[in-house]
Design brief:
With 173 residues, this protein is an alpha+beta fold. The chain has a domain of 87 residues. Strands 1-2-3-4 form a 4-stranded antiparallel beta sheet, with no helix packed on it. Strands 5-6-7-8 form a 4-stranded antiparallel beta sheet, with no helix packed on it. Strand 5 and strand 6 form a beta hairpin. The longest helix is centred in the middle third of the chain and has 35 residues. It is rod-shaped, with a radius of gyration of 38 Å.
Length: 173
Amino acid sequence: MSRQGSPIPPRASAAYQGVTTQQLPQSPGTTTEQLSQKGNGYLTPLGCGALLVVGCLCVWSFVIVPLNTYLTTQWHYGDAHITRISADIGRGREDFFAYDANGSVVVLEVNPAHPEKTRMYTGIELPHDSGNTIITLAVSDVEHNGKLDVIVSVGQEKYVLFNTGNGLSWSQH
């Protein structure tokens, strides 16, 4: 028997039986083709590309760069963040140590030949400090008097321990 002559049987599901569809009213001058073409513009791929770029920048800025900074700092300075430099500033070879003691910069001057003459210099306070600021040391003749001074760098700020000949001082003499 051919299917062309038989009527189309109703669906087996009761949910589809007896349901009629209605045509939605269209605004004047708008065709069905125009409505279907409206969503196929270039804004969707452009918007997705912009979101992808913003997402990549956020991952770079908030995950990769801070993780790299933390790991580099940890590998170079460790947990204690102690800086050490050896120099001869006129009293033989001495070791200088600098660290952040909960918001206060501490610089130690240690002469290995006379450890009993170790000197400690404090005086730089770091407001709003977490206790692990990196402090670096350098030696240079700041006053151009032939005596090497110790330069203490805390971030972008630089402080000088001036060489007085008998010791170091935060103030210039």
